[in-house]
Design a protein that fits this description.
- The protein is mainly α and about 45 residues long.
- It has one domain (about 10-45).
- The chain is about 40% helix and about 10% strand.
- It has helices at about 10-20, 35-40, and strands spanning about 25, 45.
- Strands 1-2 form a two-stranded parallel sheet.
- The longest helix is centred in the N-terminal third of the chain and has 12 residues, at about 10-20.
- InterPro entries: THDP-binding (IPR029061), Thiamin_PyroP_enz_TPP-bd_dom (IPR012001).
- One of its GO terms (molecular function) is thiamine pyrophosphate binding.
- This is Thiamine pyrophosphate enzyme N-terminal TPP-binding domain-containing protein.
Length: about 45
């Protein structure tokens, strides 16, 4: 039996950034970015 994993857009974006080796994420903090900010781990800096 195959299992399908569901990811949110924010989770998928963070996984892509991990694969690309990104250390810094630049953006404007706000309501629209909260999901992304909440999903970035300790290895990233949001500037």
């Amino acid at each position: 039996m195959k299992y399908q994993v569901s990811l949110t857009t924010a989770q998928l974006l963070v996984k892509c950034l991990e694969v690309e080796g990104v250390d810094y994420i630049f953006g404007i903090p706000g309501e629209e970015n909260l999901d992304i900010i909440n999903n970035i781990g300790n290895g990233y800096r949001f500037v």
